[in-house]
Specification:
The chain has helices at 2-30, 44-95, 101-115, 156-163, 179-188, 220-266, 270-284, 312-318, 325-333, 385-431, 480-498, 504-518, 594-597, 608-618, 624-639, and strands spanning 120-127, 132-139, 150-152, 168-170, 194-201, 204-212, 289-296, 301-308, 337-339, 357-365, 368-377, 442-449, 456-463, 468-476, 525-533, 538-544, 550-552, 559-560, 564-565, 579-582, 588-592, 648-655. With 656 residues, the protein is an alpha+beta fold. A hairpin with a 4-residue loop joins strand 13 and strand 14.
Length: 656
């Protein structure tokens, strides 16, 4: 085919050369140039014939020489041509039987690199549902090309290659390209030139191989022709492998989704579920580092719950919050983020120096962001919109997993809390007086309503003799079982100390030191202890930071019993003072905890001391039990159906 084409070209060249020389000779003769003077007397027809002979004879001698040179050149280049054909045929045969795309592309690119003598190669294959040919494999580039390089199927370059039967050579055709395609060629390198070799399957463009030779080479046309023929054969194999790998990946995704769904339904431990999701992501999307970050919308914080490939100390130092970094940005906007080169993104927080591309997906349930999935790759442009769609499928599964795990954890914690509250209430109830002590001239009544959180309220009425009664009320810090245990410790110490000969300030100081020794920092108790002496009509007391009890007397302002010192368990070695109050018949002593004074209505307004005094004033002449009942009704009416946040304890004593 090459010989016939070259013969035709030679004949055309000879004809053009004869016509040009005859025309030149004729013009010179007409212009009477000196060397043509001898021919002026010759008739025009004879003159033309003479010049034709002069021209044709050399040309006729040139053609045999040209054919001999061509034959010599053909014999010289034949081994190179045979080598190209053999290498191409061996490469094609080695790809037969390969069904997976990645192994096939590895073999194809290695073979093409050897075939082209180390040229830079970039293979673009179709991206499903994207309308582009995306960079799929490379060889020979000193720097890694971004994996998101793409060639629009509707662009001038792809449209031209779809109809081409031979490679396009750039920069010869560079002017026909749009801006994006010129930029693509710049990334591929255009010195000295770039060849775009199309691949066709069933008449459609199914790929493009860009070849950037290291230098202009002899026999480039034959190499281009060999590549064109080879890729025409390989196109079918590559397209079949691509479709097979695509179908296999989709099947893998479905199987994996089913597996994740099955494991979600079988196990409700949050950590186990999230590890399952991480394993699935590694198998379908792939990553060099990944993390599932839990979002606390109320606190604006993001916690790295499960991570792989990160230095967790670096993550702790970064301390992500909502609105900070790519993860925080996704948590704030509830929209996925796809970054081809993190070095160009101002939101990127450098937690891994080797990261080049990143994909971030918020996990939401009913508009609430539960977590953010973050994947990072060390390759430029490693993630595509197809990867984002895959990740979103897993995000749906992760959302279900997190929601189920959260509900399960809440139910488990609720059961645990209920058990803890039941234990705390049993401790609290065991320490309360089973009945009111009887003392002549003194009527006593008590009421306790535990809250759901069970605080550390305690009260006690301790007979100290025929006419003396110890009165105690307190509230320890904290809730639940720890508070109940602290209350029990305080109660046991108090009961032990009341049996000795210590006075009130000494008892309070000793209680304070015991609590400081046996409790941690930040644990304390408010406590009031008084001794009512009926024979002397006197109340001695000491108040350690508790709400002051009220001494109510008809027709007078209530008296607050405040003398004492700081709360127990706060400062070792603290001293306490003793206060005294003279008593009269008809006096009412009201002791209470914060559950009474801090009870709130629907508007958040507390019951308060003023209401306590007002209610007590209306029933001050009645029995201790009636006073207590009126206060209970008043505070419950004030609170309505609101759940109480603390225990409510009241003790009322009336002197006859």
């Amino acid at each position: 085919m090459n010989w016939n084409r070259d013969r035709l070209a030679g004949t055309v060249t000879d004809t053009i050369l004869v016509v040009v020389l005859v025309a030149v000779a004729y013009v010179l003769n007409r212009l009477h140039i000196a060397w043509t003077v001898p021919f002026r007397s010759i008739p025009l027809a004879l003159e033309l014939l003479l010049f034709a002979v002069i021209v044709v004879v050399p040309v006729s001698l040139y053609s045999p020489v040209e054919r001999r040179l061509y034959a010599f050149n053909k014999r010289l280049l034949r081994p190179e041509l045979d080598r190209l054909h053999r290498a191409a045929d061996e490469l094609f045969r080695s790809c037969i039987g390969l069904f997976e795309l990645d192994p096939m592309l590895t073999r194809v690119m290695d073979g093409l690199e050897g075939l082209t003598g180390g040229a830079r190669l970039a293979l673009f294959l179709p991206e499903e549902e994207e309308g582009v040919l995306r960079l799929t494999a490379t060889r020979g580039f000193s720097e890694e090309l971004p994996a998101d390089l793409a060639l629009a199927e509707e662009g001038p370059l792809a449209a031209g290659l779809a109809q081409a039967c031979e490679p396009s050579v750039f920069p010869d055709r560079r002017s026909t390209l749009d801006g994006a395609e010129r930029l693509l060629l710049d990334r591929l390198g255009g010195e000295p030139e770039v060849w775009a070799v199309p691949m066709h399957t069933a008449g459609a463009l199914t790929g493009v191989l860009f070849v950037t030779p290291q230098h202009r080479r002899r026999g480039a046309g034959r190499l281009q022709e060999t590549l064109m023929l080879l890729l025409a054969r390989l196109a079918v194999l590559i397209e079949d492998a691509r479709l097979y790998s695509l179908a296999r990946r989709e099947s893998l995704e479905k199987d994996l989704l089913f597996e994740v769904g099955s494991r979600i339904s079988a196990a409700l431990d949050r950590d186990q579920l999230l590890e399952t999701v991480m394993d699935g992501l590694a198998r379908v999307v792939g990553y060099d580092a990944a993390g599932i970050f839990l979002v606390d919308g109320e606190q604006g914080r993001i916690e790295h719950h499960i991570v792989r490939g990160y230095d967790e100390t670096v993550l702790d130092e970064v301390g992500l919050r909502i609105g900070e970094g790519l993860v925080g940005r996704a948590a704030e906007t509830a929209r996925p983020i796809l970054v081809s080169d993190v070095r160009d993104d101002p939101w990127y927080v450098a937690a891994r120096p080797s990261t080049r591309s990143e994909i971030v997906l918020p996990v939401t349930v009913e508009g609430r962001i539960l977590a953010v999935i973050n994947l990072e790759s060390d390759r430029l442009g490693a993630y595509t919109r197809k990867d984002l769609r895959r990740l979103q499928r897993f995000g749906n599964q992760a959302a279900i997993a997190l929601q189920n795990a959260r509900l399960y954890e809440e139910a488990r914690q609720k059961r645990s809390l209920e058990q803890e509250l039941e234990l705390a209430w049993e401790i609290q109830r065991a320490l309360l007086p089973r009945s009111m002590p009887e003392m002549k001239g003194v009527e006593a009544a008590a009421y306790m309503r535990p809250s759901r959180s069970v605080g550390g309220d305690l009260y006690d009425l301790v007979p100290l003799g025929p006419a003396r009664l110890g009165i105690a009320i307190g509230d320890v810090s904290g809730k639940g079982t720890p508070a109940a245990i602290l209350m029990a410790s305080l109660y046991a110490s108090f009961r032990s100390l009341t049996r000795g000969a210590l006075n009130l300030p000494q008892i309070m100081a000793r209680l304070n030191d015991l609590l400081c020794e046996n409790t941690g920092v930040g644990r304390y108790a408010t406590f009031f202890y008084g001794v009512l002496d009926r024979s002397q009509m006197l109340l001695r007391y000491s108040n350690a930071g508790h709400f002051p009890p009220l001494l109510l007397r008809p027709g007078e302002e209530p008296r607050l019993l405040t003398e004492g010192g700081i709360v127990l368990g706060w400062l070792p070695g603290s001293e306490y003072q003793e206060g005294q109050a003279e008593l009269e018949p008809g006096d009412v002593l009201l002791l209470y905890t914060d559950g009474l004074i801090e009870a709130e209505d629907a508007a958040g307004e507390m019951f308060g001391e003023e209401r306590i005094v007002d209610v007590a004033a209306t029933v001050i002449g009645r029995s201790a039990r009636e006073v207590l009942e009126e206060l209970r009704i008043a505070v419950e009416t004030h609170s309505g159906d609101r759940e109480v946040g603390d225990d409510l304890t009241m003790v009322v004593l009336r002197l006859d």
